[in-house]
Amino acid sequence: MNTELIRPLTALRFYAAFLVFSIHASMLPGLEWLGHQGAELQGRLGVSVFFVLSGFIMTYVYYGEDRYEPTRASAGRFIIARLTRIFPLHVLTFFLALPLGLNSNTARIHLDALPQHLLLLQEFSPFGDLGNSPNKVAWTLSCEMFFYLLTPPLFMLMLRLGRNKVFLLIGLFIAIAIATTVYYSSAVVHVERAPFRWADYVLGILAFFFFQKVQGKQRAWMAWLLPLGVLWFAGLMAMEYLRDESTPGSLLLLPGSVLVVLGVGFQRGTKSWFLASDTMVRLGEASFALYIVHELLLRYSRVALTKFGFEIHWLLWIPWLILVFAVVQWIAMQLHLRFEMPLQDRGRKWLFRVFRVEKTKAAVVVK
Description:
By secondary structure, the protein is an all-alpha fold. The chain is 66% helix and 0% strand. The chain is built from twelve helices and no strands. Helix 1 (3-24) crosses helix 10 and helix 2 runs parallel beside helix 5. The chain is globular, with a radius of gyration of 20 Å.
């Protein structure tokens, strides 16, 4: 396994999580300025990068150079690895955030929908409305679960098709993109749900095969992919301000997400502090904990600070933001090290034993 590739892509996860954190931090007194006009788009950028990166990494780790075996054991190892990656922190934060949802005036939960939210099924159907999860960011975890459950049969079909697997993936992406465009304005079909966001994941798989084909070659254009991706996002943000309206749909985000993921992937040999230093890799490894816990911490903090009438001078806004992030990141790191990783390892060992699937190196590479 090429850890030089995994390191910068792991660090990228931190930046995507930070984008989402930065907009949610606007709920705190003294940080309202973070809720700028393009804040919603900023959060959607982070989610889009997450989804594309997920498809890229899952294919790199589990499929690779046709190493994936079309067997029940192989599918079982994949699903167990993904379930134990997501559910420990999800279940913990679900119950921690439950009082917030029960008492919220703006994002009140539907009690009859709690089982679907707990099992991360809320985004599987593009129809109906199950309301918010107690931990509101969990909607993306439901999308990821949808992607993961479809991955083993998709990989098996890709193996059977051999070199023609790329045409299958292109066809899937085009079909989902067309459906997204057709139903974008529909009041019945929700195009931000998992079946439509699967396009992000499929495009991440395609990005990996492109990367795999050209990675051994040194080309000048490779160094331009990351800055071009950033420029694409910057252009979308500029349009958000100039047009004074939201950027339609998630499809427009995908070119930037793919460029960023590929651009970071082609930087696999770098020792840059911003991409592949030990510090950034550790932050990237704890990015899931940061993502899943930050919103509920900020909501509880808002309740407490508002109750005490907290105010802060504008000259202290930046130090206040740094302090808030440092505290949230420290809590996320402790959860990652002391809760997420131990339960993930124990859960995988136990489930591998219960379902009698052999533990393999590929099944446990991605933390």
